[in-house]
Specification:
four-stranded antiparallel sheet, elongated
């Protein structure tokens, strides 16, 4: 009789074990789907944050550069400050954006002699100091050495004057989005003091 009882319980145990196995598989599938959707939402939220922040970064950099000297040390300081950092480093939650990705251009206002059309051109050569730039602009506001505007763009470093778009870098590398490019987020503002102080002597 006891043997018959054990025999009748075996199918029950088998069914319970099978149900546990099915539940484990269902949980794994649901968990995979849940975390994929969760990480996807986080990635999209980060991308929206990054796209909006880059425009604010260029606006901030242009506003600071318009009132700062244009020597290399000052430009590097502007780049770091624009990324809301005191030292070099990536933009918070903005990898791979670093100060090197901010391209600051000083532009002159060129006038075509025949058509009188105005266009922005990179200032060349750059004035030796802010006081010299002030003198150049007073002498000839359309001189190629008169900085009239400051432009800031988000570019791939080492472009040799070109502004190549920066590839998007995933926070959660579930799929390859290297073909997606970050916007250049260009900001152009009129040059202000450029670090000029009244009474300073123009440099050579």
């Amino acid at each position: 009789m006891p043997e018959n009882n054990h025999s009748s319980l075996r199918p029950r145990f088998c069914r319970v074990k099978r149900q546990r196995g099915v539940a484990s598989i269902e949980f794994a599938v649901v968990a995979l789907l849940f975390f994929t959707i969760l990480f996807g939402i986080l990635e999209i939220a980060r991308a929206v944050y990054l796209f909006n922040t880059l425009q604010e970064v260029t606006r901030r950099a242009a506003a600071i550069a318009a009132n700062s000297r244009f020597d290399q040390a000052s430009v590097d300081a502007v780049r770091s400050e624009a990324l809301f950092r005191d030292v070099n480093g990536n933009l918070i939650l903005g990898d791979p954006i670093t100060p090197a990705h901010l391209q600051i251009d000083y532009l002159s206002l060129a006038r075509d002699p025949s058509t009188k059309a105005l266009s922005l051109q990179p200032a060349s050569p750059l004035p030796s100091c802010p006081a010299k730039n002030k003198l150049n602009c007073l002498t000839d506001p359309y001189s190629s050495s008169c900085i009239r505007f400051v432009r800031v763009r988000v570019c791939q470093p080492g472009g040799a004057g070109d502004c190549a778009p920066v590839p998007y870098k995933m926070l959660f590398p579930l799929i390859d989005l290297s073909s997606v490019k970050l916007p250049q987020s260009t900001t152009i503002v009129p040059a202000q003091t450029l670090g000029f102080t009244f009474g300073s002597i123009p440099c050579p």
